[in-house]
């Protein structure tokens, strides 16, 4: 089971930790009203917030919710500024603990990982002789479907500090289903929950290669029949152990490429997915219609970074974005 951690609460409520949490929360929020309001009396506000937690008087604020449609509809939840400080303070202490429990083949929301690291890893695997077919699948409604009782089995396997567990439960209850998309703590716990599937894939299915990015999974091996059997076993395990269903899945030859993290990959090259290009065209048209040059410049910079990882030299010209 590994090391269990019993004395964490004092580290969480320490003045140094809250100062760090405050700086992390304030990053990219310096023009927001909530930041400016908190900043006016930052030292006092941080002291009072720490005391609320230390004396078990902390009550989390209400989520502000809004929808995004990129690429599909999602309900995003945002906490007040002071509550995001609390989440950073908790994560500063416990995230390294759970980071050690994650296998190196999961790439979402982790230090030195991310989208492009996942793409580079999988494409390198596709170049090996053992790679002839891929299984691609993802979980249906991943965040809303997470079983919190099962999640807490993973949390309590590592954390034995009762005060810390009680604080975590003020943010994520230990009963019911679902995590809020957009919450800092939800990113960590969704990764920990996905780690249940990771261990099954790695230690039980034992494919040649695999990777996960939150709810998105790709498995690589040399036999389509073997991969279909892996799919059946993983689907059954996910239903029984995680209360999760697959959204969709496919097993196909490597000659058809593999869709993963916004790219369609083969051993020797990769392209931007067509649906990503369509969304980019819509955004560019929207910025131009609104005469929003600042928005267009920011989007163009981000898109250039995304495209630079693919073999798409003519794509930016098609989109009327200059390479610089």
Structure report:
By secondary structure, the chain is α+β, with helices and mostly antiparallel strands. The chain has 14 helices and 9 strands. It has helices at residues 9-12, 15-26, 33-39, 42-54, 81-99, 115-126, 142-145, 148-156, 162-171, 184-205, 224-242, 274-289, 293-307, 315-318, and strands at residues 64-69, 73-78, 133-139, 209-213, 216-221, 246-253, 258-260, 263-265, 270-272. The strands form 3 sheets. It has a 4-stranded antiparallel β-sheet, sandwiched between helices. The chain has a 3-stranded antiparallel β-sheet with strand order 7-8-9. A two-stranded antiparallel ribbon has the order 1-2. A hairpin with a 2-residue loop joins β4 (209-213) and β5. The chain is globular.
Largest beta sheet: strand ordering: 4-5-3-6
Shape: globular
Q: Tell me the major beta sheet.
A: 4 strands, antiparallel
Structural classification:
alpha+beta
Average predicted local confidence, pLDDT: 91
N/C terminus separation: 51 Å
The number of E-state strands comes to: 9
Round the Cα radius of gyration to an integer and report it: 22 Å
Order of helices and strands: HHHHEEHHEHHHHEEHEEEEHHH
Estimated share of beta-strand residues? 5-15%
Q: How many helical elements?
A: 14
Query: Unreliable segments (pLDDT under 50, ≥5 consecutive)?
Result: none
- Specify the helix fraction band: 40-55%
